[in-house]
Hints:
This protein is of the alpha/beta class. It has two domains: 4-258, Metallo-beta-lactamase, Chain A (4-Layer Sandwich), CATH 3.60.15; 265-401, Rossmann fold. It has helices at 67-75, 93-96, 99-106, 115-125, 194-209, 213-222, 244-258, 276-286, 304-311, 330-342, 360-371, 389-405; strands spanning 3-5, 8-10, 16-17, 22-24, 27-29, 34-35, 38-39, 44-46, 49-52, 56-59, 85-87, 110-113, 133-134, 141-143, 146-152, 162-166, 171-173, 232-234, 265-270, 293-298, 316-320, 323-324, 327-328, 348-355, 375-376, 381-384. Helix 5 packs across helix 9, helix 6 crosses helix 7 (244-258) and helix 10 (330-342) packs parallel to helix 11. Bound molecules: MU-OXO-diiron (FEO).
Amino acid sequence: MVFQKEGKIMSHFNAVKVSERVYWVGAIDNSIVDFHGYSTHRGTTYNAFLIMGKTPILIDTVKKPFYEEMMARIASIIDPTKIEVIISNHAEMDHSGSLPQAIQDIQPKKIYASKMGVQALKAHFHFDDHVITEVNPKEKLTIDDIVLSFVETRMLHWPDSMFTYLHGDGILFSQDGFGMHYACHKLFSDQNDHCIMEHEAKKYFANILMPYANFVKKVFAALPVQNFNIKMIAPDHGPLWNNKNDIEWILSLWKEWAELKASKKVVIIYDTMWNSTAIMASVIADNISKDIQVKVMPLHKFHRSDVATEVLDAGALLVGTPTLNGQMFPTLADVLTYLKGLKPKNLMGQAFGSYGWAPEGVKLAAKELEVLGVNFVGDPIAINYVPDDQALEACALLGKLVSEQL
Length: 406
Ligand code: FEO
């Protein structure tokens, strides 16, 4: 069966069987490199799922440009117009962008979302009042032979977010939860490299969930109460966690990251104009004790979202900036603004850098660190033009001080 639209026949995309009654019908985005400011060099997937009960149900949709890919995958299993129910777990447009078109083409009898989801979907697409029905997270929803439960997961990653659990098959559809931006052409976690998955899952947590770490802990507190027998976790991005070991692994990683604990790790971010701030960064790094991990990140080379990934479990953040026209260097302003939004915790740190006329860049960077709640180690180091031996000695001392206090 194929899905036909405006004369196009999309017959080359297939659904992937996930369980006896469930198929993956999402889309793979190989080309995305920027997801609202987060670098996604491994691309991403927008996962959507078709539950083939007596009443076919679609869980989530995909980003709007991938609508036809999703419909073609659905059409490889059933005529999409046979879908009677759509459940929207999350209103962000990477999952809801295709919803209005899907509603128009499928004409489902019911569309469900959380209480906040009803409001968010209305605000996005200006649906009439009766179009979306609010789920009751306190009650199971039975649709013929399909029994579903819902868990409100506010701020994971938006106020409207919820999980849907399919009883029997034991699948937890977790929208952004436990996901990653990774255009994996192999759908299941046991088919993918665990080093890549750990890195991308950590990057996802750092850049999307870090400010909501306390909400993540609430979700972990709420899940056991439900007595679910989870056999698979199916997020809306990246691989599906399809075996006990991988489920335990990703849950334990998330539990650990949600603590925002400082580890023995120093992140040094800097930019440079005539190499003075770069030399200062190198000397500081060289004087960090060898039992401490050091990540030196020149910002002309590292993206803000890579910095956030490293900061997630760091114990110290050192920020080096030249002064450019009375300001800190723009790349530093970018990253510090981004980090302020992510609200990392438990960091010590300091600002350093070189200047020509006045050390405004270092002063401004130190102010930003104060707003970030960083505990200062020593004093800011601002060097006129090019560091001499005495200046480099101050940098070495900063490295040693951080090592002692971490
Ligand atoms: Fe994948 Fe918060 O959307």
